[in-house]
Amino acid sequence: MKLGMVKLNELIENEFEGEAYILLQIHDEFVFEVKANRAEEFREKACYILRNAASLETTLDVHDSIGVNLSELK
């Protein structure tokens, strides 16, 4: 999770400055605030980063959702 968070922060700094923010990290979940017009692009890149954050014998599974508020996330 820490390695993923570091890489996601780099993504935000390099490609989404002022358009995406890490709001919460709870156990194995991240919550971001992202401008609506860049949300899908951010989702694709963030999922790729998290799936490939570490080289392991097993694959990492990433679940994602987009919503206007936390109650819409599943």
How would you summarize the topology of this molecule?
Layout: H1 2-15, E1 20-26, E2 29-34, H2 39-51
Name some characteristics of this structure:
18% strand; alpha+beta; single chain; two-stranded antiparallel ribbon; 36% helix; 74 residues; 2 helices
Question: How many strand elements?
Answer: 2
Mean pLDDT: 91
Structural class: alpha+beta
- Describe the strand arrangement of the main beta sheet, using strand numbers: 1-2
The major β-sheet equals: 2 strands, antiparallel
> Helical percent range?
25-40%
**Cα-based radius of gyration, to the nearest Å:** 12 Å
Instruction: Note the overall shape.
Output: globular
Low-pLDDT segments, ≥5 res = none
Distance between the termini: 20 Å
